[in-house]
Amino acid sequence: MSGDAFLLALFLVAVVNVSRYISTLKTLLAVMRECDPLLYQQVDGRGFFTSQGNVSKQIRLFHYIRSQQYQKHHDPVFIAKCVKVRKLFVLASTFLMVFFVSIFVVAYLGI
């Protein structure tokens, strides 16, 4: 197997996982709008995926999910979406790191 085919396969897997993560994040924001409007405003839900989005508010959602503060929430659907977003973030991040390390390994070893 060539290095190019290996990198292409890793890239495709990474793209699929990142798109799953973004899609799940969008559904989390939709659920959040219904069940917790205050949190939705705090994380800039309306402008989350726009170029005018407030990055500090987006980071607030990252810390909210990373520290698992959603465990105290009253809505089980919201909790399930947060768990899924957290798992997909870890998965997508791992695949992206493996992809970038693989680029350097393939380039360095000349596979």
From TrEMBL:
Q: Show the GO cellular component annotation of the record.
A: plasma membrane
Q: Where would you find the membrane-spanning parts of this chain?
A: 88-109
Topology versus the membrane, per the UniProt entry?
Multi-pass membrane protein
* Cited InterPro entries: Universal_stress_protein_B (IPR019598)
Q: Which Pfam families match?
A: UspB (PF10625)
Location of the protein in the cell: Cell inner membrane
Q: Which domain of life is it from?
A: Bacteria
UniProt keyword terms in alphabetical order: Cell inner membrane, Cell membrane, Membrane, Transmembrane, Transmembrane helix
Query: Major location, coarse class?
Result: membrane
The record ties this protein, via NCBIfam families, to:
PRK04960.1
Report the family membership: Belongs to the universal stress protein B family.
For this entry, the protein name equals: Universal stress protein B
- Say which species the protein is native to: Photobacterium lipolyticum
